[in-house]
Design a protein that fits this description.
This protein is an alpha+beta fold and 802 residues long. It contains 15 helices and 40 strands.
């Protein structure tokens, strides 16, 4: 998600089509579009619990008709907001791409565009050309106190680049070069990831480069031999009879396509970077020189429709779903819009461990290929998300074998089937990388996929990355359409009070309960997986559920910690299991083994997140632990689950779990071991999954009421427990369908929102330590939503009318 600072006077263009602001709409697909204009307003950088930072700006088009809407509000989230705050000033010319479009809540007030743009994530890009000094066409914004120190981007940085043939030992340099060899990042002996490449330039000197960075995104994003790289802050070191380049403090890289005529959009390892006319000139010169050379190996990129047995090839595709097969292998289900001419292996895994949809339509299944990823690539596969566009390097098309993981004895053995393997190691550039949405390869892939959808006249939501992955964990299409369902609410309280209007309710003092009759105007969060929170009943704290990346990091850090001499607790049986390239230490509570697997308590030391979930699918109680300095078993940081049971994970409150430790769990014969028993034995204060939503209501007089929360009675309202919603797709679908019926999205056929009878409790709370900052909030209570089929006579009546 870069902010690209261009040289003074440069045009902040791009290879995407620039559309007029007046044409921005939720009815159009803007994935291939960008907007262009000047920043006429830049708000402050505001901290946010869910996105780190939020910033609101306004972009105005410079040339438009007198009746056209010329300005639009832009909302930036996360680090992109932080970078924008540092690098962009009022009056700068910008282009924005990779945005989503939503309805603007302030359109009536500010009289700007009825929609606004939301920019966040890896696909969002801001290209900025600073306003020339002395340009007073747009007043300079008055300096304000910022939440972060200003970035050093006010003056255009100047860089000197050294030709590869002029390098000398022991100096830090900046270089350009054409990639003639590369290896994808892999785990080094230390804490960093290492990638290696070899580059050349017009001097025809070939120089090896070793890149050491802790994060995958900090490495050069090289997708094929012939790419052009710009490396800043690399040091020359003698190696045998030549020189090599290694990274130093401040290293960053840009990567460009080496094709003549390709766009100049760089792939960056840094969120903020300088890119000026000198850079354009050097990239253009290298492209022209490369076109006249015979340096590049033949392109081995192949579509699934051209894959043949025993072939090694590169595949550009989209990830639909993934699942662990075992600790050394992960299954990726991918497609590229074409159909392989050979029968493909069907790999069977437990649907409970699949991330993404577990089934597709018959037409889609014909185009989906199973890719088995092995050994060191399993860690990279853990970071992939369904919907990502991938390039898989050195993939092998393997003829069928009964030894392929997932081909169990209960399956019918297939003859002459084909499976795709990404073997371990990094030879021949072997690996998998996520492609940015604006990559030319992705654009071509989208066109192929669009052609498939058009030819089959099917709805695109099943595989479209912008619609498929927005809510929950991609629930399957509902067996009952929303149009055939009605949802109403029912009061379950004993309050015999009349309903009041929203204007009357606002005049009441906080405290007490009230009945209202309203419609649901909007709700937050729109991405429903964010409604899940963790709540501690002891200290009343609430927090977001940690994502997989955070949990995997905690387990990885625990595995890397130095430990004392190993010892086993007297109450356990111990052993070691070799999984992938590491060893997991296993302790099994001795007294529970005679009661069957449902009562076994497994302690894992040195495990990954994938290992823990894999074993939890078989054993009901899996506890990840580490070795303390004295060699004893200790619980991990409570940012990670202290217990895995099947698909469910259980967390403890850090604040209330002081003194938590691994202890013997004793139960009476016949008593079930569950999360409460284990938490109590360990001294862990168990946190509970809860649902939290915020509603905006509107009554018959068009009065609105904000800050209406659904929390304590959310499970009662939806008829679904939060714990089920955290792990059960059917429960997620029920909540989603209820909300979409109560509040249909804009443009959903003009369906009217139903009238709701609600019981609201009012209370006062402060948003800060300021005693005068108290506000009134509202909470829905004693209310349940009921879902039922529409009456048949209504549909018959409509048929009579026609």
């Amino acid at each position: 998600m870069p902010v690209i600072v261009l040289a003074d006077g440069a045009e902040p263009g791009g290879h995407l089509t620039i559309v007029p602001i007046m044409h921005i709409s939720t009815d159009r697909d803007h994935s291939h579009h960008s907007i262009k204009g000047r920043v006429v307003h830049k708000g402050p950088l505001v901290p946010s619990a869910s996105h780190d930072f939020i910033l609101k700006a306004t972009i105005e088009e410079e040339k438009c008709g007198p009746q056209e809407t010329s300005s639009i509000n832009v909302v930036l989230l996360g680090m992109l907001a932080s970078d924008f705050s540092q690098a962009v000033n009022r009056g700068d010319a910008v282009t924005a791409s990779g945005f989503t479009v939503g309805k603007s809540p302030t359109a009536r007030k500010d009289r700007r565009h009825p929609f606004n743009l939301l920019l966040s994530g890896e696909r969002a890009v801001i290209r900025v050309c600073p306003r020339p000094p002395g340009d007073l066409t747009t007043p300079q914004e008055a300096p304000k106190e910022n939440l972060l120190p200003p970035a050093a981007v006010s003056s255009t940085p100047k860089y000197t680049y050294v030709k590869l043939g002029n390098l000398t030992p022991g100096v830090v340099v900046n270089v350009y070069g054409v990639v003639v060899f590369f290896k994808q990042p892999f785990k080094s002996r230390g804490s960093d990831l290492c990638s290696s490449l070899k580059i050349t330039d017009q001097s025809e000197q070939k120089i090896s480069c070793s890149i050491f960075c802790p994060k995958m995104e900090s490495h050069p994003q090289i997708f094929q031999i012939g790419d052009i790289v710009r490396l800043h802050k690399v040091k020359t070191q003698p190696y045998k009879d030549s020189l090599t380049l290694v990274t130093t403090f401040g290293f960053n890289a840009l990567t460009f396509s080496g094709m003549v005529g390709a766009d100049m959009e760089p792939r960056s390892s840094s969120r903020v970077f300088h890119f000026g006319e000198e850079d354009r000139r050097m990239v253009t010169e290298l492209r022209s020189w490369l076109a006249a050379q015979d340096l590049l190996a033949p392109d081995v990129s192949v579509a699934l429709s051209a894959a043949q047995p025993k072939m090694y090839f590169d595949l550009t595709c989209q990830l639909l779903a993934k699942a662990p097969v075992d600790s050394t292998c992960t299954l990726l289900r991918v497609w590229d819009g074409t159909q392989c001419p050979h029968a493909l292996l069907k790999v069977t895994v437990d649907s409970n461990i699949v991330e993404g949809p577990t089934s597709f339509s018959e037409e889609h299944e014909k185009l989906i290929a199973n890719v088995l990823v092995y050994d060191n690539h399993v860690q990279s596969a853990q970071q992939l998300k369904p919907g990502d566009f991938l390039k898989i390097f050195n993939l092998r098309a393997t003829p069928g074998s009964v030894k392929v993981p997932g081909l169990s004895s209960s399956q019918v053995e297939e003859v002459n089937h084909l499976c795709f393997h990404l073997h371990g190691g990094t030879a021949y550039g072997r690996g998998v990388r996520v492609l940015p949405g604006n990559s030319p390869d992705v654009q071509e892939l989208r066109r192929t996929m669009d052609a498939f959808h058009e030819s089959n006249e099917e709805k695109r939501s099943e595989v479209n990355d912008s619609a498929m992955w927005d809510v929950w964990n991609t629930p399957p299409e509902s067996p009952v359409s929303r149009s055939s369902m009605e949802v109403s609410t029912e009061l379950r309280c004993d309050h015999h009070i009349r309903s009041v209007s929203l204007s009357e309710l606002k005049r009441h003092e906080p405290g007490g309960v009230h009945h209202v009759r309203t419609r649901l105007r909007s709700y937050e969060p729109r991405r429903l997986h964010r409604t899940l929170k963790l709540y501690c009943s002891k200290c009343d704290c609430m927090q977001d559920v940690p994502d997989d990346e955070r949990v995997a990091s905690v387990l990885a850090d625990a595995s890397a910690e130095p430990s004392g001499p190993a010892g086993s607790p007297p109450w356990s049986l111990s052993g070691q299991v070799r999984l992938a390239a590491h060893t997991i230490e296993v302790h099994l509570s001795a007294q529970l083994t005679s009661e069957g697997r449902s009562k076994e308590l497994i302690f894992l030391s040195g495990c990954t997140l994938q290992d823990a979930r894999h074993l939890a699918a078989t054993y009901h109680n899996v506890v990840p632990v580490r070795r303390s300095g004295g060699g004893d078993l200790a619980l991990l940081d409570l940012s990670a689950p202290f217990l895995f049971r099947g698909r469910r994970s259980f967390y403890g409150c850090k604040r209330c779990s002081e003194g938590a430790a691994v202890r013997e769990v004793t139960v009476d014969r016949g008593e079930v071991i569950d999360e409460k028993v284990i938490a109590e034995a360990f001294g862990v204060q168990l946190m509970k999954f809860v649902l939290l939503l915020k509603f905006r209501l509107q009554d018959a007089a068009d009065d609105t009421l904000d800050d209406v929360f659904l929390w304590r009675d959310a499970e009662f309202f939806f008829g679904v427990s939060a714990e089920d919603a955290a792990a059960n797709q059917q429960a997620q679908e029920q909540i989603q369908q209820t909300l979409e019926t109560l509040c249909p999205p804009e443009g959903a056929g003009g369906e009217e929102r139903p009238w709701l009878d609600l019981c609201l409790a009012t209370y006062s709370a402060r948003e800060s330590d300021d005693l005068e900052s108290a506000r009134t909030f509202y909470q829905i209570c004693h209310t349940s939503a009921r879902e039922h089929q529409k009456k048949k006579f209504w549909s018959i009546f409509k048929e009579w009318q026609f």
